[in-house]
Amino acid sequence: MASMSMSSCLDKSVRQHYMSLPQGEKCQVTYIWIDGTGEGLRNKTRTLDSEPKTIEDIPEWNFDGSSTYQAEGSNSDMYLIPVCMFRDPFTLDPNKLVLCEVFKYNRLPAETNHRISCNKVMEEVKEHSIWFGMEQEYTLLGVDGHPFNWPSNGYPAPQGPYYCGVGAQNAFGRDIVECHYKACLYAGIKIYGTNAEVMPSQWEFQVGPCEGIEMGDHLWVARFLLYRVCEDFGVVATLDPKPVTGNWNGAGCHTNVSTYKMREEGGLPYIEEAIDRLSKRHDKHIRVYDPHGGQDNMRRLTGQHETSNINDFSAGVANRGASIRIPRQVGQEKKGYFEDRRPAANCDPYCVTKMIATTCLLDLEDKKENQ
Fold this sequence. Notes:
The protein is of the alpha+beta class. The chain is built from ten helices and 13 strands.
């Protein structure tokens, strides 16, 4: 059995006494941002005199970037610019969670602030009404890094009964999954669903459909909620693309994509055109589909365990071993969407959606202008 944090063993009934105290007209606002690793999330909370009604009601703030891998100690103040607001499922209404962009002392975007360039692209392709849905896989671990509920010495039974499984012998950590789902619904995250995955202690939730920049905003906050729920239960959620070596599935963030032309009757040719364009920029996409230039995905995209080979581009109907999958229903109805199965679980959704939109739509506009 994986070890659990001591914080989760504290008497939660004592905490509940304080959490139920009235707070008058005051509002707690928790600011959330991406740190210098491009993977980690940070947060801190302040009091506002009243409940904010719009994002414009929330003031800028700052933090010590030298403690988040984002600045030197001699010039460490970084700015937090609120961009998206959600209800807080932990301290409840009227309190808020606020996703922020990070800017340096000179008001330039921090190196891991990929939202600003993504938003620029999404504004450029707005007329195409591009929708995304991302399937976030993750693995539950103890604080010692051992997979949750795996034997201390050895392995569980081989993969087979765990995907969408039920029963204590098959589903490890369902309480966490269901609490996270409810937290997302309460917060206003566009969570679509959830399921147990192929490897034991591995789960998935889906966010979408979201249009444009909303995809990255909602997935990052959904990740924050996952980490916070896991904190309450004393376990860790990792987005490592290959958390366990050997004959075990990795973890991805399959990305479903459509434009309004793809969704309309006769939209299949637009899907096929997008796939053709993606095939010509495979290497560029791989470099942004994990935070380390493709190094993380090298461990995952091996051509085994329902993945394509990282060096080759492929596409097919209902083929989960391809780079791009066209769902069978889409092939039959000749319209809909496609699924890019290459992004790693720890990808930055802003980078992924920006690259897909650029390849499928912006390059297309450039081509038309040059004709």
